[in-house]
User: Fold this.
Amino acid sequence: MKSQPLGAIPEVKEGEAVAKISHLNKSFGDRAILKDLSIDLLKGENLVVIGRSGAGKSVLIKCMVRLIEPDSGDINVLGFDVPRLDVKQLRELRLQVGFSFQGSALYDSMTVRENLEFPLRRNLGITDQSQLNEAVEEALEDVGLSHTIDQYPSELSGGMKKRIGIARTLILKPKIMLYDEPTAGLDPITSGEINELIVKFRDKYHTSSIIITHDISSARATGDRIVALMDGTIKKEGTFEEMKATDDPELARFFNY
Assistant:
């Protein structure tokens, strides 16, 4: 895929790659985090990336939108040659790629309504209140939290904040979602609700998603395909059952604990 001019995002058929990462390298000081890593994300799939803490899972997805600059390698997302984008092109790409951080990343001084309106006003320039209301109400209905619209983040539980954070990301209708440890710190019931939302949004909005996690329950519930990131590169990939059946002792610790 060649880099596209600003605004020209190619249509991709189901099962074709919406993101291609080839020979990606990233080090911090003398510590190599990603080593010649290559991976594709296909349209309409939930791709789960598992690995030990510090394995570079979050670094991978941050390189995809240049929150972290890669040292070398090719990253092509939605037709954009990511390492070589100018400021305007990078902004255009980031409008199409939603990033759900480990924390909810909500503004404490804003109500839920204001938090969800913020990206619409700032990124899309929407000022019509009826349009804002419609988008906010739909996003909150999607995550089952319509009743929180006038509350502040401090009044919400951790799981509710996580769901509102996802709603704020999805309100821009991105083509790709990047979830960084979406169930971290949550109880099993709330984690299950988040997993259900990830699958629901894939089906409703036809998004392609990368889910970074060390939660095997989340991997099983959300992943169409699972890859294991070890020693800075992809060691194995497959369905959950294929990964669980591995005879690799290091991988077995993840799937047969």
About this structure: The domain at 17-106+175-255 is CATH 3.40.50.300 (Rossmann fold). The longest helix spans residues 188-205. The first strand starts at residue 17 and ends at 28. Residues 1-7 have pLDDT under 50 and may be disordered.
